[in-house]
Design brief:
about 170 residues; rod-shaped
């Protein structure tokens, strides 16, 4: 029986160590892939959490714009004229309302004349900004003259505005 030489043993030892290194590398690569997946899931969860916080911020801090009040004229003959009344627009939200636009549809009666103007939006306000806890006063422009002060009038306002990433209408 022939005894293996040193070079044969060294070749065998190198082959065994290479095999052990490959197993070790495969094991570590598997752990690496698992950690990358965990990290990707964590990043995705953080992104979803940030998106939810952003939506929550927009929902709780958005501008809230509405007509708060109407101001009747002090002169008695003008009290029945809707075109002499002033209206107060307010923003009770926590963010500014930008590009505020108001249109109005007027339906009015003067004596026996009836003007139903529900097909035409009269522009009242364009591209205004209203900051939180601020008011803006506006009037309805007189566009239809029926020859006197209306005995009955109906004003239908449409208010649109933009906040941080949202567009709101009412």
């Amino acid at each position: 029986m022939k005894i293996p030489t040193l070079s044969a043993w060294s070749t065998f030892a190198i082959a065994v160590s290479t095999f052990v290194l490959v197993l070790f590398a495969a094991f570590n690569f598997n752990k690496f892939i698992h950690n990358v997946k965990l990290m990707a899931d964590s990043v995705r969860q953080q992104a979803e959490s940030i998106e939810l916080q952003r939506k929550d911020f927009i929902l709780t801090h958005k501008p809230i714009v509405f007509i708060k009040s109407a101001f009747t004229p002090q002169i008695p003959e003008e009290r029945n004229d809707p075109f002499k009344h002033a209206f107060g627009l307010t923003n009770t939200g926590k963010l500014p309302a930008r590009k505020v636009r108001i249109t109005v549809v007027m339906n009015q009666v003067v004596g026996t004349n009836i003007a139903i103007d529900n097909t035409w939006n009269i522009p009242v306000l364009e591209n205004a900004s209203i900051y939180p806890n601020s008011d803006l006063v506006f009037w309805i422009p007189k566009t239809i003259n029926l020859g006197g002060i209306p005995s009955k009038a109906e004003a239908i306002f449409t208010i649109t505005y933009k906040g941080e990433g949202i567009e709101q209408g009412m």
